[in-house]
Specification:
This protein is an all-alpha fold. The protein has 10 helices and no strands. It is globular.
Length: 237
């Protein structure tokens, strides 16, 4: 029985590591906040107010923004009540909305590799938080709400940096920018809904209790790899 349990645990842990590794590979392959050539060309060649297209682009960006999704996965990992999920997701949304809008309107950007490395570190931070590391290391628990808001600000800077690279026309900039942000929020809700469905099924199994720690170890490792990838890009670019 013990050997069978160890075998099952090994299999489940492998699946968890593989799942997070796939998300990480997709994030790296997409350069975190990358944009397809077609979308970039469309944005650069367009002018005037285009609410629906920019809502679509914002939603598409968030749904394929695997670094954002990994962070959200960590944030909601141990949140069981919809009220708590709503509070943390709102804090994250407020954070990245503020820096997305202000960063673009004030023409303020941060080196893409640096900001993406910080976003990768946010994944590491939340995984360690879920593992209870800070309580063991420092004897107290930092506020996860403040951390979620602060990292939301950095995620927003990542969005703003790429938006500025699009070189959006000043004609219709403000409504298009708000439309893009609305799309980001819609995309976040769609992705969050899917994550919650998967988590809901997993939490009903004994596997969740056994492998919650392993899942966060894998999440932390993925965040470190993502940080390393971005810093390598920074130094060789």
């Amino acid at each position: 029985m013990g050997a069978f349990a160890k075998k099952a645990m090994g299999k489940d842990s492998f699946i968890l590591v593989a799942f997070i590794s796939i998300l990480l590979f997709l994030a790296v392959d997409a350069s975190a906040h990358g944009v397809t050539a077609g979308d970039k060309g469309y944005i650069q060649e367009s002018s005037g107010t285009m609410i629906i297209p920019f809502i679509y682009l914002g939603a598409k960006h968030m749904v394929t923004g695997y670094d954002h999704l990994l962070f959200l996965f960590g944030v909601i990992f141990f949140l069981y009540r919809l009220k708590d999920v709503s509070i943390y997701v709102t804090l994250f949304a407020v954070g990245h909305s503020v820096t997305l809008l202000s960063g673009v309107l004030m023409d303020f950007s941060v080196n893409a590799y640096i900001i993406d490395a910080i976003i990768g570190f946010s994944i590491v931070y939340k995984a360690l938080d879920n593992m209870g590391a800070y309580q063991r290391w420092f004897g107290f628990q930092p506020s996860t709400k403040i951390a979620t808001l602060v990292f939301g600000l950095f995620h927003g800077f990542g969005l703003a940096t790429k938006i500025l690279e699009y070189k959006i026309s000043s004609d219709g900039l403000i409504p298009n920018l708000f439309a893009f942000n609305v799309g980001v929020e819609l995309g976040q809700l769609i992705a969050l809904g899917l994550i919650l469905i998967v988590m809901g099924f997993w939490r009903r199994t004994a596997s969740f209790t056994r492998h919650a720690y392993s899942a966060n170890v894998a999440l932390m490792a993925g965040g470190f790899i993502f940080v390393g990838y971005q810093m390598t890009g920074f130094f060789i670019s």
